[in-house]
Amino acid sequence: MTTTPRAVTASPATPGVESQGRWLLVFVLSYLALMADGADVMMYGLTLTRIKDDFGLSNVQAGALGSLTLLGMAAGGILGGWLSDRVGRVRVVVWALTLFSLGAGLLGLTHSFLQFAIVRFIGSLGIGCMVLVTTLVAEYVPTERRSLILGALQTGISAGYIVVIALSSWILPHHGWRTLYYVSAVPVVFALAIRFAVPEPASWRASRAADRKSQSESSTQGPSGARLRDGRYAVIFRNRQTRTLFILWTLASVFILSGFYGLNNWLPTYLERELHIKFSSLTGYMIGTYVVAFIGKIFAGWLGDRWSRRGVYVLGCAGAALFLPVIIFWHTRENIAALMLFFGFLYGVPLGTIGTFMSESFATSIRGTAVGGSYNVGRFCAGAAPIVIGYLATQFSIGFGFLVVGAVFFLSGVTALFIPDRLYDTERPSTP
């Protein structure tokens, strides 16, 4: 891979000046958006047992609902990534946040497996686009603090987990799972705030202007020929380096997301059914795990700025993979709390650096398409994970399924070894 990244000549609006003056506001609003994202993803795992009982679902059907969610996220993310390069990061994030917030609220009105599946799939199209929140912030924040800031941004997902776990401990026993979904429609307010307070990043605007100029100059070849040649995926797969990176990130995403979504869907049930932890205590275990994940993400971001995005990601994946068997085979009533806390830290490390690492792998002109595409093709393939764990839970145990989760974490780290570090500066416009 020897291709040299090229910078785009900036328009009169210099990216650095405007970004530095506004990135804190962008960070805060994006953090709230990721809190909503994290809350939505965790909510299904927390309500799974009650939904199963209410609808009379088998383990495989329950896993299928989780997998259908991931398939919708994949489809939405791929489309959203492509749209973000054409119409803007902010517009797509606003549309996505509105769709999945309202969709989650409507889940409380469903009364069958089919109704829940249809509404969940539509809402999950919006969830899939939320990976672009990281891309949006990456194009605002200064290079020297990017990994730390994006690591801190990723704690928004953990904050969403904690908020919904805390709410569920009060709402579920007294008001039922439907009320929890009604409350989840509130984040549509965040979408309105982002729509009116956050402009498109200057680097995206400069890159888009250069792209329009290039399309105008190539229009002599005919409209259809120019569109075919300049299509985002055509650009990605025509360039050897970008094509290789897209494939590697797709594989890394398949492995890491299979692990994350497998855990998120089945960890509450594992703690409740196989470790026999009462629901009143379960929320404490879960909150503790994700609070420590905060620390892991921020530490990963800090270390990524000072050392290597790739190195931190690889070590985080390997650590999580190797520690899962410790929880499964050596837990006791006395040590399970400590084991879960340490795993929470390891779990947070790859999440704290993946946003920076992936965003810096692609040029501005194709970043949304490449990040949204590779990450969400990974999601599509990872859609099988909850079903696989559901099957393994039926045949063996959920703990056995988590051993498979450990293996895919490890494979994601191995794949990342072949991805270069700090390839593009996301604050500056660039082309492959």
UniProtKB/TrEMBL annotation:
InterPro entries registered for this protein in UniProt: MFS, MFS_dom, MFS_trans_sf, Sugar_transporter_CS
Pfam families to which the protein is assigned, alphabetical: MFS_1
Location in the cell: Membrane
Keywords, in A-Z order: Membrane, Transmembrane, Transmembrane helix
Major facilitator superfamily (MFS) profile domain span: 26-424
Membrane topology: Multi-pass membrane protein
Transmembrane segments: 23-44, 64-83, 92-111, 117-141, 148-173, 179-198, 245-263, 283-304, 311-330, 336-358, 370-392, 398-419
SUPFAM superfamilies: MFS general substrate transporter
Protein's recorded name: MFS transporter
